[in-house]
Amino acid sequence: MKFAKIPMATIVRLSIYMRTLQELLEDDVDVISSERLAKQCGVNPAQIRKDLAYFGEFGVRGVGYRVNELVNQIKDILGLNRPWNLAMVGLGNLGSALIRHGNFIKHGYMFTAAFDIDPQKIGKRLPNGLIINHVDELEEIIKQREVHVGIITTPASEAQSVANQLVLAGINGILNFAPVQIQVPDCCHVENVDFTIKLDSIAYHLSFGS
Amino acid sequence: MKFAKIPMATIVRLSIYMRTLQELLEDDVDVISSERLAKQCGVNPAQIRKDLAYFGEFGVRGVGYRVNELVNQIKDILGLNRPWNLAMVGLGNLGSALIRHGNFIKHGYMFTAAFDIDPQKIGKRLPNGLIINHVDELEEIIKQREVHVGIITTPASEAQSVANQLVLAGINGILNFAPVQIQVPDCCHVENVDFTIKLDSIAYHLSFGS
DNA sequence: TGAATAATGTGAATAATATCACATTATTAG
DNA sequence: CTAATAATGTGATATTATTCACATTATTCA
Ligand SMILES: NC(=O)c1ccc[n+]([C@@H]2O[C@H](COP(=O)([O-])OP(=O)(O)OC[C@H]3O[C@@H](n4cnc5c(N)ncnc54)[C@H](O)[C@@H]3O)[C@@H](O)[C@H]2O)c1
Ligand SMILES: NC(=O)c1ccc[n+]([C@@H]2O[C@H](COP(=O)([O-])OP(=O)(O)OC[C@H]3O[C@@H](n4cnc5c(N)ncnc54)[C@H](O)[C@@H]3O)[C@@H](O)[C@H]2O)c1
After folding, report:
1. pLDDT per residue over A34-57, tens digit each?
2. How far is CA B94 from the centre of its chain?
3. In order of start, what are the domains of chain A with their CATH numbers?
4. Strand, coil or helix: B143
């Protein structure tokens, strides 16, 4: 499916296109031009065509893109036409809010394990039926349940140690919400989410114009 | 403070440098080279020097950067040496978790207003002392309390309408957690946070290698 | 059928961004 | 004081990403 070296920005945009296309699908739109899609996504139409061109030809000249087909083709491109199993590590404020959230399931992500270190939390059952396990059992359970991606929502001070455990357990993808830069081997791909960095960008724009 | 057209990526990296520098400060490091900082931030050393060079000369040749000075200089660059007032709109799972979180205060962001539409929630007092107001009072309160940035944590279906209200109230910066692309006038700067897009990137990497 | 129209796919041009490489400046030690 | 060393700041270069512009292909309608 992958032919050349693909810009990371292209991958991110494909996700955005896909979400917009899924909304269009719900509104019973079945064909769309790169121009209209571009407007909705806030990008240049040629950008969309170029991004897709890395992976093949998906449109019909003179017509546009069939929405439902394109959604599936983007899913193929991104590897989303299969389930992905997630483990949440740290069931505090943020972890609990996330695991309760329906958007993950909707996009094919399934929480299959949850870990904490607080004795009060171990053994508790989450709204989705999952039971919180002690982080000592992390390696065993992650292998058993074939978890693919680990989500870190522990305090920052624990994030590196949790990351190490995840890597040891064979995890190759981590979504890190702790506000620290964690170090992992090359085989493991980390994405960071730090809201305050986004706020900093806003502050900069408000201070010094667009 | 701003001299040329600055890449957006530079602004984001400056935030990251700043956070790493703040950690170093806590560890009583008082001077650091671009090389060591680069390693900790996962970037190229020349990148750091170039990013800073857009705004002036902050280091000492042959020595490096004085950590505490550089933190302050980056704060000046980003417009962070002043308080920023935030309003949270939507006090559900996510909004409540966020407003309870200490990291915002730590970085100079202060919640000064909170809005919801659920009668059960209006009038409730949050852990930080803030009282939840009805979203009908949004414009008045935002002006009164000099809110600078609005945070949207309502369901996706409400996000555009909330954004419209924020813009009407004079807000020029929005942090949007709802998984939709909101449309605002050019005067308003929007940053989106969508965790599932990050998961998609991870899925892609796991499926098709680095 | 054929002309008019619409919209893709893509090579070429442009723009933006990152990296290299080294001249410059500060410090240390002999 | 001078040589050796360290690390910044920056012009030049390389790389990457975006946009343009148009040839190509599909559709519609006279
Ligand atoms: N809450 C937010 O809105 C928010 C926003 C931005 C970033 N963050 C970051 O997300 C992380 C979690 O935030 P929170 O507000 O949920 O904190 P929290 O204190 O409510 O939750 C942390 C949880 O991690 C558990 N934990 C601690 N050490 C652990 C370990 N070694 N293994 C497994 N579990 C462990 C704790 O028992 C607790 O349940 C923090 O790093 C925070 O900076 C949170
Ligand atoms: N919870 C998560 O972890 C998570 C993760 C990713 C994205 N999101 C997104 O964040 C948003 C909120 O998620 P949540 O889980 O907190 O949902 P939620 O349903 O728990 O909370 C939504 C809150 O918004 C309030 N609300 C509804 N309409 C409103 C309006 N017009 N004005 C003001 N308040 C209004 C509701 O009363 C409710 O309190 C959603 O868009 C969701 O997709 C949430």
Report:
1. 999 999 998 999 999 999 999 999
2. 16
3. 8-78 (1.10.10.10), 84-196 (3.40.50.720)
4. helix
Who lines ligand 1 at CB under 6 A? A 89-95, 115-118, 121, 135, 153-156, 158, 162, 177-179, 195; B 97-98, 101, 103
Residue A129, burial from CB neighbour count under 10 angstroms (0-12, 13-18, 19+): exposed
Residues 6+ apart with CB under 8 A from B13: B41, B43, B47, B48, B51
Largest distance between two CA atoms of chain B = 63
Strand D: residues with CB below 7 A: A 7-10, 43-44, 46-47, 49-50, 60-63; B 32-35, 45-46, 49-50, 52-53, 57-65
Region for A152 from its dihedrals, namely left if φ exceeds 0, alpha if ψ lies in -120 to 50, beta otherwise? beta
Bridge partners of residue A191, in order along the sequence: A175
Q: What tokens appear for A101 in the block? A: 């959230």
What is the mean pLDDT of the segment spanning A69-90? Answer: 96
Residues composing chain A: 210
Question: Mapping DSSP to helix (H, G, I), strand (E, B) and coil, where does residue B80 land?
Answer: coil
pLDDT in tens, A128-175: 999 999 999 999 999 999 999 999 999 999 999 999 999 999 999 999
**Residues written for chain B:** 210
Q: pTM score > 0.90 for this model?
A: yes
The rounded distance, in Å, linking the Cα atoms of B89 and B139 is 12
- Report residue B44 as tokens: 């190229």
Distance, C-alpha B45 to centroid of its chain: 24
How far apart CA A25 and CA A71 sit, in angstroms, is 9
The alpha-carbon radius of gyration of chain B (Å, integer) is 20
Which tokens sit at B205? 């990497």
User: With a cut of 70, which residues of chain B have pLDDT below it?
Assistant: 1-4, 210
Closest CA to B61 of B34, B93, B84: B34
Q: Exposed, middle or buried: residue B127 (CB in 10 Å: 0-12, 13-18, 19+)?
A: exposed
Pick out residues 36-65 of chain A having their CB under 7 A from any atom of nucleic acid strand C: 45-46, 49-50, 52-53, 57-65
Cβ A174 vs Cβ A190: under 8 Å: yes
> Which tokens is B190 given?
């929007």
Instruction: Report the interhelical angle of A45-53 vs A8-26 (nearest 10°).
Output: 110
* Count of C-beta atoms within a 10 Å radius of residue A101: 17
